[in-house]
Amino acid sequence: MSTSPSAPTNRTMPQTALITGATGGIGYATAKLFLERVDLFDLVIITGRSQAKADAAVASLRAETKCAPERLTSIVLELPCPDLDAVTTDLRRVLGDRKLDVLVNNAGAAATAPSSMMGVDATFAQNHLGVMALTLHLLPEMADDGRARIVTVASSLHTRVPDTLPDPVEASKQPKSAAGPHYDGLHTYSVSKLYNVWFARQLARLLTGTDRVASPTLQAHLARLQPTATSVYLCPGFIPTTGLARQSGFLRSILMHYVLPWFPFTTTVEDGAARILFAATATADGGGSLSGHMVQGKPPAVVDEVRGVPAHAKNVAKARECWNKSCEVLGRPEWKVVVAEEKVEK
Q1: Which Gene Ontology MF annotations are present (predicted)?
Q2: Which one has a higher pLDDT value, 298 or 24?
């Protein structure tokens, strides 16, 4: 099993955190770890796909951590969400007069059969489009005091996607294995995780002011958070016992749950949660910025230059293309990135 990275404690505390997809698996373990770190977080908000699941997770977490009831609450969220205004209303209700310091985009899915949402593959819609829409919708709720951080949980599987992808959205419609016509859910999941990486990196460029969006409203929300808000991503490791692994089909799920956990290249949900905590709280050595980078391991934390992240995953033009094509599918063309020579819409 891998060794968990340690999380630094030199960010301004205490903080509020929203963790999506936290009723089980790595999300649940992350919420538990955040609650155990009273020195870091005094309010943890989790999301579940139903009120019953959210309530059950809250009750279980309170029992396990013995946390004060006011330190943990929940809201209902299923991605992609058809009513983000309702989510915002629920979030404001539990935040009160506070702002959100940390958003952990953890919720995800891995389908074993073809299905569609929003005109694209359901896995792609849930793992990328839903995350993008939620994050941009919640920017007004993020703290503007230098602590805001958006953590996107990606996967090392993004490295298996070649740089010869067709149109970013069309890529999710072609989850066919080269060996045959069957649905290749692993490919589609990997594609969605590459788009997570591109999303996190492009968001970082917007939060630093390097790029702009066409929408004056969204641009104002981004500018409010500049230049200290950060967007980072991480790969939590290969965790064969998670819900995503169990969605991989019967035989593969048996292998993942009962056999692979004994192999040294796998990790546990607890280790994965520790990596998320590190990504949520780490600071760069020498006063630099972690924004736009994969944050993993121990300081100096920025490791995307040395761990084989493919060049196309760090390609600025591809990240911008991914962003703009996603805006089209979401029906929000005003969210598109405009390059310097283009005129921003009034």
Answers
A1: oxidoreductase activity
A2: 24
Domain encompassing residue 294: 15-338
Structure tokens at 62: 């309170």
Amino acid at 305: E
Domain of 31: which CATH number? 3.40.50.720
CA distance 115 to 106: 21
The one-letter code for the residue type at 327 is: C
Torsions phi, psi for 45 (to 5 deg): -115, 125
For residue 162, the surrounding DSSP H or E stretch is none
Q: What is the identity of the amino acid at 317? A: A
Q: Provide φ and ψ at 132, rounded to 5°.
A: -60, -50
CB atoms within 10 A of CB 325: 17
Using alpha carbons, list the distances in angstroms from residue 300 to 236, 278, 293. Answer: 17, 11, 12
Look at residue 115 and tell me whether its pLDDT is greater than 90. no
Measure Cα distances from 104 to 99, 191, 232, 279, 292 in Å. Answer: 15, 20, 10, 10, 15
At residue 190 the predicted structure's pLDDT band, cuts being 50, 70 and 90, is confident
Better pLDDT: 306 or 113:
113
CB contact set of 108 (below 8 Å; sequence gap of 6+): 21, 126, 127, 153, 192, 244
pLDDT in tens, 252-263: 554 444 344 444
